[in-house]
Write a structure and sequence with these properties.
This is Ribosomal RNA-processing protein 7 homolog A. The structure is a single chain. The protein contains seven helices and six strands. By secondary structure, the chain is of the alpha+beta class. It has three domains: 149 residues, no CATH class; 38 residues, no CATH class; 38 residues. The protein has a six-stranded mixed sheet with strand order 4-5-3-2-1-6.
């Protein structure tokens, strides 16, 4: 597998959990380069990393690359599959998305391009050590106990977050109901009229708007560029002149036939 990844332009960097560990894995790294760049993964500063072991954490990857490359790491993003976007932001402290299981794909964003160059020139023999005595990475029972304790929420904080979410949800639903009631008579027969008038052209619902825009995109995609080139314009004009001449000759024959039919013939 290693020679195949090297052929694809990846550099191989060994990695171990601890210095005394016998087992090690191989990280496959290269510069993150895509057609459409984003602010979260800027070009010339982002390292694309494959085959990140499951025991790795964002903090440990950030620490080891910062130390080895002698350049601060601004952010580390983990994904299940390669992507140019950043992971979705967690709005809730308690209701979070499931953690990525198994090997991961990572993006290491350095503060400057110097860090990226240093990462691409790391030794392929000297392995990176994720867990050290000063900054250990928890595993096994310690990790499971920590994760279990983190899953036990504080009842007051949880209730506060739920109340905040329900308040925002109720306000949003109230706005939707007000929009749906526009143009409809209330119990006393009054009608709320907006700038759009009593009979809007189409519904204000987002689903209807998406359908209309989708149809417009399909129409634009099916359009053909007519008379775009010079020879097409010339051929179109010649064809039009030929059609006019043919119509003129047909009209002449029709007039001649009418004259023959009206001519007086006593014998």
């Amino acid at each position: 597998m290693v020679p195949e990844m090297e052929k694809l332009g990846f550099k191989v960097i060994p990695i171990k959990f601890a210095a005394e560990s016998t087992a090690q894995h191989s990280l496959f790294v290269k510069e993150h380069a895509v057609r459409v760049n984003t602010d979260v993964k800027p070009p010339h500063r982002t390292l694309f990393v494959l085959n990140i072991p499951s025991y790795s954490t964002e903090a440990s990857i950030k620490r080891v690359f910062s130390e080895k490359c002698d350049c601060p790491v601004e952010a580390v993003y983990f994904h299940k599959k390669p992507t140019s976007s950043e992971p979705p932001e967690e709005d809730s402290k308690f209701f979070t998305s499931a953690a990525i299981q198994g090997f991961k794909v990572g993006y290491v964003v350095f503060k400057s391009s110097v860090g990226l160059k240093a990462a691409l020139s790391l030794s392929s023999i000297d392995p990176l050590i994720l867990s050290s005595e000063s900054k250990p990475v928890s595993t096994g029972y310690e990790k499971w106990a920590k994760e279990y304790n983190q899953r036990i929420p504080d009842s007051k904080e949880l209730q506060a977050e739920i109340d905040k979410y329900m308040t925002e949800y109720d306000a949003e639903q109230e706005k939707i109901k007000m929009k749906e009631k526009e143009g409809e008579a209330d119990e006393e027969g009054w009608i709320t009229v907006t700038r759009r008038g009593r009979k809007p052209g189409f519904s204000r619902k987002e689903s209807v708007h998406k359908k209309v825009m989708g149809r417009e995109r399909q129409k634009r995609s099916r359009k053909e560029l007519l008379n775009f080139y010079t020879f097409q314009i010339r051929e179109s004009k010649m064809k039009h002149v030929a059609e006019l001449r043919q119509k003129f000759e047909e009209d002449k024959k029709r007039i001649e036939m009418l004259k023959q039919a009206r001519r007086f013939k006593p014998y």
